[in-house]
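Protocol step 4 of 6.
Sequence for Phytase (Flavobacterium jejuense) entered exactly as in the expression construct, tag removed. Do not edit the line below.
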Amino acid sequence: MKKIIYTITVIALYSCQEKATELTPILPDVITETTINDTDDPAIWINPKDASKSIIFGTDKETNGAIYAFDLDGKIIEDKTIRNIKRPNNVDLTYGFATSDSTKVDIIAFTEREKNQVRVFSVPDMRPLDNGGFKVFEDETNPEFKAPMGIAIYHSPINQKIYLIVGRKTGPKENYLYQYELVANTEGTNLKLVRKFGKFSGKKEIEAIAVDNEMGYVYYSDEQHGVKKYHAEPEKGNKEITVFGIGKFESDIEGIAIAKTTSKKGYIIVSDQQRGQFNIFDRETNEYLTALNLTTLETDGCDVVTTPLGSKFPKGIFVAMNDAKNFYVYDFEKIEAAIIAATTSK
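Step 5 output, structure tokens:
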């Protein structure tokens, strides 16, 4: 039986590669070391003291899961890796969270599905700020709708508040997402529920969530339907702004990365999982631009930074999960060059 399953898997992955072969393949500059179980979602922390020593965090989703830390050569940084996490799915980060003693720290936040909670740690010292975890969807009466999966952090440029936007493994057709403010006071750090929002087509699930802090938008992948867009500020309401990408994906719409080339311009990069490629949309208009073959297999999560990370990555990096228990890392300069070449040749 194992041999048959393995053969089917290999055929499926080969088929996925074949679908992207009409596009010029772009190879990764770095492939990380492998994890134990199953990689899912990355987040990139920029080291303010030395950008060449920045860290790629990546989830390894299983009961004995972990948040792996990799250097820019793809090597595991063991003392920055968080182990014994009960099925972590998605991870995100932000900078300058004011703790209860007014100290500002950078943080990562990730979902821990089997405990129905999210975790928050400071970076780079990897100190837990959550007293073991924050429970989410506590008012949900349907047990099937309580398990968290997707997460994104919105750091408001208006009031500097930090919010965790959390999605579920399965959920209702209304209010699939909960938005929590991360609050620090004399009693410690807590989550405060500020709103429920987000429509769901009911076709499969919602996992990938991404926030454009500067533009004030939150995007999420309604798998097998489209990419949905809402305001990230709770005060701006819960009305859906638009849905884009309909008809541009073979099946599952997965990871979302927002590449910011100026304050408003850039690209929204979204994994077209079964086709083995990434669809590129304009950051301002959400118009479809092109697709890229980055030679990954069955990509779930992805992330990007456009800040220089030393001489090796002068325009930042794009990181994508690869279905071989690792992550692919690309010099963003060549990703951007490929996008420009494809769009100017049309």
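Step 6, annotate. The chain has two helices and 24 strands.
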